[in-house]
Design brief:
Elements (H helix, E strand, L loop, with lengths): L3 E6 L3 H13 L3 E7 L3 H11 L3 E3 L2 H5 L6 E4 L6 H10 L3 E5 L6 H14 L3 E4 L6 H12 L5 E11 L17 H17 L5 E9 L5 E10 L5 E7 L1 E12 L2 E5 L12 E5 L2 E5 L6 H13 L9 H20 L3 E2 L2
Parallel strand pairs: 1-2, 1-4, 2-3, 4-5, 5-6, 7-10
Antiparallel strand pairs: 7-11, 8-9, 8-15, 9-10, 11-12, 12-13, 13-14
Helix pairs in contact: 1-8, 4-5, 5-9, 7-9
């Protein structure tokens, strides 16, 4: 079977924990190289995972003709620079969420990849899990009645780790960027339209470079449907998505971190409750395989690169609302 040859830009923990093992376990991919600005670090990473090549710079990896695609798990403020550099080098790109620091940057990235003729995808692995498509089918079927509300929560307590890059404002730190993107992207997908307005209240912590360590908000969609959400890096761990209709509900828990042992859907209609699953699917592997098949022209992307721009518009509005302490109407 043909293989998509991957390179990893950087040695981030998410690559070690999830994406590298997923590529290794995938049907379509192989890991060819890993790059770091510290060559010894890259060498150690290559040895740890049995990766054939290592590089002492990102530029060296991008110049390697044996690399077809790159995964970019770098800090948020570096996404634009290295996505555009990778596109110019003819590499397909899987970039960690959020795609950029703002919607304008995201649009530049999308345009650069389109011009270069390469595939760009935002690394929202949860959206590649089959239960997400199944939720959309259940909602569309009318089983839970008319859609009325969505509730999404994603919090964890990382406040004690003051060296965390997610607590550096200039690098794109903050809970909305890190975990708020999940319920926001899920609501847009489920409703199927872009939101009309947002109101967000946030804790900008002086102890953590004034990034938003906690945020709670209301996202308004047409027809009276709304997402209520909270997200943050200074609260007890929670990870849940609830879709509410006039006749029933759908609950995913854990919602944005499914695993093979815990990836069910609970549907309640009237007095009846059923559980669908478990599916036994690794969402990171599914993401890797779908990416390769898009590159090869065998499948259409589940989500367009432009979708990432729309999600960044919503993040921009959420941050603006929190900072200004007022409702923000989206154009």
């Amino acid at each position: 079977m043909k293989r998509l040859r991957w390179g990893i830009l950087g040695c981030a923990a998410i690559a070690d924990r999830a994406v590298i093992p997923a590529v290794l376990a995938s049907e379509t991919g192989e890991l060819v190289g890993v790059a770091s600005r510290n060559e010894e670090k890259a060498k150690a990473k290559a040895e740890e995972f049995g990766i054939p090549k290592h590089y002492g710079s990102y530029e060296a990896l991008l110049a390697d003709p044996d690399i077809d695609a790159v995964y970019i798990p770098l800090p948020n403020h570096l996404h634009k620079e290295w996505t555009i550099a990778a596109a110019k080098a003819g590499k397909h790109i899987l970039c960690e969420k959020p795609l950029a620091m703002n919607a304008a940057e995201a649009q530049e990235m999308v345009d650069a990849c389109k011009e270069a003729g390469v595939h760009l995808a935002e690394a929202f692995m949860y959206r590649h899990h089959p239960r997400i498509a199944r939720v959309k089918v259940i909602v569309a079927s009318g089983e839970i009645g008319a859609l009325r509300a969505i509730r999404g929560v994603f919090t964890y307590n990382g406040a004690a780790n003051k060296t965390d890059i997610r607590q550096v404002k200039e690098w794109g730190g903050g809970g909305l960027y890190d975990v708020g993107v999940y319920p926001l992207s899920a609501a847009r997908w489920i409703v199927g339209t872009e939101p009309e307005a947002v109101t967000v209240h946030a804790l900008f912590s002086p102890e953590h470079d004034n990034v938003d360590m906690m945020a709670s908000g209301l996202v308004e969609f047409a027809g009276g449907v709304a997402l209520t959400f909270d997200c943050g890096m200074w609260a007890s761990f929670r990870n849940e998505l609830e879709i509410v209709g006039t006749e029933g509900t759908i609950v995913l828990k854990p919602s944005f971190l499914p695993n093979k042992e815990n990836d069910t859907i609970v549907v309640q209609v009237g007095g009846e409750t059923r559980t669908e699953g478990p599916y036994g699917v690794d969402a990171y592997v599914a993401q890797s395989d779908q990416f390769a098949r898009v590159v090869w022209g065998e499948e259409a992307p589940l989500f367009s690169a432009q979708d990432a721009v729309e999600n960044m518009k919503l993040i921009d509005a959420c941050l603006a609302s929190a900072r200004q302490r007022q409702r923000v109407v989206m154009g």
